[in-house]
Structures are given as C-alpha cells and as structure tokens.
Specification:
Layout: H1 2-12, E1 25-29, E2 35-37, H2 39-45, E3 50-54, E4 59-60, E5 62-76, E6 83-95, H3 102-111, E7 117-126, E8 132-134, E9 138-142
Parallel strand pairs: 2-9
Antiparallel strand pairs: 1-3, 3-4, 5-6, 5-7, 7-8, 7-9
Length: 145
C-alpha cells in the first residue's frame, strides 16, 4: 500500500504540471481578454479574430466557437400601452473560422450599447498533433467609461 501511494505521488504530485499534461490556455478577441469594454471598443473588435495562446505565448489555431449576445430591447405593451424592456438573446455557432461573419459584425456594430453582454464559448483550438482542445470562455460586459 505504501509503495503504491509513493508511486502515485511521484507520478502526479509534481508541482506546476497538470496531471493531464494539457497546456494552460488563454482566450482573447483580438488581443482583448474578458472584462468590461466600451461600445467603441466592441466596434473596433468586430473584425478581429478569436485567439488562443498558452502561458508560453504559443498560439493554437481556433477551429470553432459560439457567440452568445445578450441585450435589452424596448417594446410597447399592446394591452397597457406602456414601454417595457425585455432581455433578448442571440447565439450562433461558427465553424472553421476565427472571425465573425459580416451579418454579425454589422449587427453588433449597429446595435451595441451599454448593458449588453457578449460571451464567446465552446472555443475549440487545435494542437500541433491535430488534437482538439477546449479553450476558456471570453466574457465581455459592455459599459460606458
């Protein structure tokens, strides 16, 4: 029992290395990681690619991702005649690309405002050996300065 425990500790107890041997990945939109962002910054990023790097600055090709866009919209309630606000949500999966398509670029650029949220998830990157990796999500909250 003691010998088995020592072998397991020797094999998996090394500091700084994951037991799986997977690299520590960081995702960004252009060179912008998750965080608060202004509408003007969002517009400037719409032509940017999604990027995945490891902690040693090695870049991993992105093969797909999902964008989730949450925003508030205003409508007139047909019964009460009052203006009301509702939370809207749009999502789309992109495959074999690192960029948003023209429709998404234009929609975001034309409509982005403070309070919107943009989440890129299901980001898939490839290692040199061709194996796919799931990269961390990128989350933005749109805010005025």
């Amino acid at each position: 029992m003691f010998l088995t425990l020592c072998a397991v500790t020797a094999a998996f107890g090394q500091k700084g290395k994951a037991a799986t041997g997977l690299p520590k990945l960081v995702s960004s939109w252009g060179r912008t990681p998750s965080g608060n962002i202004t509408p003007k910054q969002v517009i400037s990023l719409t032509d940017s690619s999604l990027r995945v790097n490891d902690d040693k600055s090695n870049e991993y090709p992105v093969s797909g991702f999902r964008i989730n866009y949450t925003f508030l919209s205003t409508y007139k309630d047909s019964e009460s005649g009052e203006l009301k606000t509702s939370k809207e949500f749009r999502a789309f999966d992109f495959n074999d690309t690192t960029h948003l398509n023209q429709v998404w670029k234009e929609s975001i650029s034309d409509n982005v405002k403070s309070g919107d949220e943009i989440l890129f998830n299901k980001i898939t990157a490839r290692q040199k050996n061709g194996k796919k990796l799931n990269a961390p999500d990128i989350r933005f909250r749109v805010m005025e300065k």
